Amino acid sequence: MPERTRLEDLVKAVQEYGITTVMAVGMGYFIYFIWKYVTEQILPALEHATMTVIKLIDRVRMLDNDMIRMDQKINTILELRDIEHETKHD
Question: Dihedral, CA atoms, 49, 54, 60, 62, nearest 10 degrees?
């Protein structure tokens, strides 16, 4: 006896249970498949991306603080140079 194909099984299920029941079961499987994919594939990737973004934000803040310190040092050096320049010309 030859094996039945999936299409034959589907037709038989529709004949036995009705299209509404078969479609509801199919939709349930689809929802389960999407939920499983999201929880196993997408959420871990989002968590990894979130940690990467947090690390990048921390590095940008550190660079910003370094830039502020460098700017203050440069301004101090320029002021001292101007003061020294003025005292030499007096």
Answer: -150
Asked if 10 contacts 22 with a C-beta cutoff of 8 angstroms, the reply is yes
- Global pTM reads 0.55
Sign of the dihedral defined by the CA atoms of residues 58, 64, 69, 74, in that order:
positive
Question: For the chain, which residues make up each domain, given as ranges?
Answer: 6-89
Average pLDDT over residues 54-75: 96
Is 37:49 a contact under the CB 8 Å cutoff? no
Which residues, in sequence order, are CB contacts of 12 under 8 Å at separation 6+?
Answer: 4
Give the residue-averaged pLDDT of 13-41: 95
